[in-house]
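ZP: hey, is the magnesium ion complex queued? I don't see it on the tracker
AM: it wasn't, my bad. submitting now with these inputs:
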Amino acid sequence: MIPLIRGIRDIFPPDSDLWRHIKNTAENLFQDFGFSEILIPIMEKTELFKRSIGEQTDIVEKEMYTFTDRDGESTTLRPEATASIVRSYIFHKMYAEDPIRKFYTIGPMFRRERPQKGRYRQFYQIDAEIFGQSSPYADAQLIIMLTILMDRLEVKDTTLHINFLGCFKCRPDFNNSFKKFLIKISDNLCENCKKRAETNPLRVLDCKNESCFQLTAEAPQISEFLCKECKEHFETVCKALKNTNIKFQMNDRLVRGLDYYTKTAFEIQTDALGAQNAVAGGGRYDGLVKLLGGPDMPAVGFAIGFDRLAEIIALNNINYAQKPEIFIAALGKKCIKEAFLWASALNAVRIKTETEFSGKSLKSLMRRACKIGASNVIIIGDQELEKKEAVFRDMNTKEQIGIKLDNPVKNIMEALSKKAL
Ligand code: ATP
Ligand code: MG
């Protein structure tokens, strides 16, 4: 047996049934909000992630799967989706035809982290991005879409955290003041934060180390430094959320892991998964399109951790497997041949039908029909074939009727629609 690579999993039934349910629910909702799907590659030039995510981030410093391809090109398995979507938006000059674009994508991401529950090396994200809209209502709309998704998926006990990170005008003032504060306390910070204080000071705010947390309690707050535009942006987002009855919590430690965020940052957190408390995160990244060589174009987006979302919903213990409407219990060679034809014809007209080719006893076939949760069973043996009438059994009511075999597929469909009345 060849085992899996550490931190990489298979998703199979019943989990994959739940995953399909999540995927369908998200896609239907996003389509209603006017988002289109974008498919982006799994691999990109390493430079894309270095430039966008930032050299001094955990992802780029220690989590990327990077290799040199045979032609010498440094290649990386994508650790997140935003960079690739922005690259695609610029590369295809999508902004020229219509700068306002709304995209979603769902797929695997790769980060070499320490594997544990809710943290994998290949994990999945549901990602949504809006380009070309600087309005705070775009931020609010994404957050609303995210909360509707959580409601539809019956995800309970989550909290929406929000912070405002300022823009290119006001953030440098905060950074300076914050850096000065960090110099005062730097001797007592953890080794990681000592480094961060130099390279990526904001990250010190979300250090999981208790003493760093305490030490930064008195730090200057970004909210005191916001410029007029950022303040207005912030107030409009908050008001829009309040007007739509969305509860949120201000969290001035929410700085997000990536360099490119500006203005609004948000996260959905849960207590259900132990230390892995972030289910989704997002925010505005007005500078990224330009940074990657495109025009000056605002953007905002979010990424949901699919694996974590599925793990929370799985706690509700609902079976999302699709059950067959019909199971054909065929006894003997001749009947199996018939059952095969009927099942194919019924499947072709979208009636979920299963059959069995084993030639096992009726008892064993009925057991299988129960196991897979079939709503109805068609029983066909040599006797029925001779009488030209099969048995149609409703597995709930146990009622049985005859199905004439002059036109079995049509007659089975008729029996089903009579039942539905
Ligand atoms: P965390 O603080 O938990 O490491 P993050 O800030 O690195 O999260 P993002 O880059 O914002 O995560 O990604 C968005 C979401 O993707 C997270 O909220 C989380 O649900 C999920 N996620 C991130 N890394 C992993 C992972 N290694 N395994 C599973 N899910 C992950
Ligand atoms: Mg992380």
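AM: back. Residues 58 and 317 are 35 Å apart (CA to CA).
ZP: great, adding it to the tracker
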